Description:
Elements: E1 2-6, H1 12-20, E2 23-27, E3 31-35, E4 44-49, H2 52-60, E5 68-74, H3 76-84, E6 89-93, H4 96-106, E7 111-117, H5 123-130, E8 134-145, E9 156-159, H6 162-171, E10 179-182, H7 185-191, E11 197-200, H8 206-217
Helix pairs in contact: 4-5, 6-7
Amino acid sequence: xxxxxxxxxxxxxxxxxxxxxxxxxxxxxxxxxxxxxxxxxxxxxxxxxxxxxxxxxxxxxxxxxxxxxxxxxxxxxxxxxxxxxxxxxxxxxxxxxxxxxxxxxxxxxxxxxxxxxxxxxxxxxxxxxxxxxxxxxxxxxxxxxxxxxxxxxxxxxxxxxxxxxxxxxxxxxxxxxxxxxxxxxxxxxxxxxxxxxxxxxxxxxxxxxxxxxxxxxx
Length: 218
């Protein structure tokens, strides 16, 4: 029987999907999120969100969301969340680097505000700034690692963020036999530093990560 570890707490139906595939499942939260106080302009022409947490933390401040004209985001779930709030999503990509390439190609003369966490990766801001595009970063939430040591060895580990990889690997360093299943290419880039086998989900959803694990290990 194949064993799966999820670095994010799963819903009952998500766990059942793995169990029905004949796998054992352990889930926990490898990171925690704390919203921060922050300042931003009353009117924002272009806002970048690379995660749902960025959106939630922005909402938590009770800003007037109608002041955002255009949104640029990573992932279908982030796009859906923004559109639920009646915000216009001008561009969506499956990962940060892909989004930065779209911005660099089509929006060179625009000004952007990037709402992100304290542990955000460098790919997107570096790529945009390298093109001399105006970018202001606003830290809206803090990511804290919730490290945990596991004695069990896993056939597959589900990762949903680069910080989740960092949290897990800080206490569990010898995982060469496990397959890392990642929600996107940015997370996969972190996983490849520690795992020989890394598989990226076709879509940026938890369900797709689970489906990929079942398809690969069953």
